[in-house]
From TrEMBL:
Organism domain of life: Eukaryota
Official protein name in the record: Exocyst subunit Exo70 family protein
Gene3D superfamilies, sorted: Exocyst complex component Exo70 (1.20.1280.170)
Pfam families (UniProt xref): Exo70_C, Exo70_N
Residue ranges annotated for the Exocyst complex subunit Exo70 C-terminal domain, each copy included: 198-324
């Protein structure tokens, strides 16, 4: 057992390092980030956090426990800021559409066994390395200490907030909109057709590259740090965007039916049917089951909508050709 005086000296030394980087009291701490500095400084701080956590676990006196707990709270607040800063600094605007096209072309030229690509290929799924490996090591070292100290929720929230902003930016660049059934109803035929064409292309990039790459990143940082921690961070990032992506198709499937929509509904059905196996791979965990279910249910609604339009069209033909809905050739809003 370590002598009490050594424990006291060890704690005092670690606490001094922690307090030096307390942005509430230190001007230097407010102006500089630890992980922007020298490696030795980074390692010294992480070691101090480890020492405090170890002393906290072994503290027997109430005063010692309170002092160590106070130091841990200061350290966790600092690590949270460092975690956020690193994520923001290394989050860039990825041209996913371009990367996806380049990967397909590269595969045709070199085959999927090429080791020169920065992608991991799983059939049609393409996973980009969103953050450099050495930076991932730093993020993982912070996440490990935050989670072990009981700051799992704070870590997930910071991660999800930064990465979701990146995904939202990608959605805007791909032209993915959050449209309701009412918005769909107001669109003229050509406008709706343009949006459907855009969605069918963008959805491939979102599922096969954007979401898949985010899943890879969360695994790189969080896998093995706790039960389903990586999946929690992944879903914190992409659940909202995934729902938004499929809401467009759901709105189309639930809007009023008319013959003009038939072929576009079939296009959406084919596109989603083609994507469904990839959705099941990317969202294979228990916590992401709702996304898989939503996609499958929308596919069924699209099929039902197509059958309904065909049935109504056949009935109209049998009744009277002049009563066929949509026979007029105008560009008015869809019925």
């Amino acid at each position: 057992m370590e002598p009490p005086e050594n424990v006291t000296v060890g704690f005092a030394s670690a606490e001094k390092i922690i307090l030096r980087w307390d942005s509430m009291v230190s001007e230097e701490a407010r102006e500089r980030m630890i992980f922007d500095g020298e490696r030795q400084e980074i390692d010294r701080y992480l070691q101090a956090v480890d020492d405090i956590q170890r002393l906290l676990a072994s503290a027997t006196m109430a005063d010692d426990h309170n002092q160590a707990n106070s130091a841990i709270q200061i350290a966790m607040a600092r690590l949270e800021d460092e975690f956020r800063n690193i994520l923001i600094a290394h989050t860039k605007d990825e041209d996913f559409a371009k990367d996806n096209a380049m990967t397909r072309e590269a595969e045709l030229q070199t085959g999927e066994n090429s080791t020169s690509s920065s992608y991991r290929s799983t059939h049609s799924i393409r996973e980009l390395d969103l953050i450099p490996c050495e930076v991932i090591d730093d993020l993982r070292s912070i996440a490990e200490r935050m989670i072990s100290a009981g700051y799992f929720r704070e870590c997930v929230q910071v991660y999800g907030s930064v990465r979701k902003s990146a995904v939202d930016g990608t959605f805007r660049r791909l032209g993915i909109e959050n449209l309701s059934i009412g918005d769909i109803q107001k669109l003229e035929r050509e406008a709706l057709e343009r949006k459907i064409r855009r969605w069918t292309q963008a959805a491939k990039v979102c599922v096969r590259t954007v979401f898949a790459s985010e899943k890879r990143l969360s695994e790189q940082i969080f896998k093995g740090l706790g039960a389903a921690t990586d999946d929690a961070c992944f879903m914190e990032t992409v659940k909202g965007p995934a729902i938004q992506l499929f809401n467009f198709v759901e709105a189309v499937s639930n809007s009023r039916r008319s013959p003009e929509k038939l072929f576009k509904i079939l296009d959406l059905h084919d596109a989603l049917s083609d994507l469904l196996p990839d959705v099941e791979v990317v969202f294979q965990s228990k916590s992401s089951e709702s996304i898989r279910v939503q996609a499958a249910e929308i596919l069924s609604r699209l099929a039902e909508a197509a059958r309904g339009i065909l049935s109504e069209f056949e009935n109209a033909v049998l009744r009277e050709p002049s009563e066929i809905p949509g026979s007029r050739r105008d560009n008015s809003p869809l019925d």
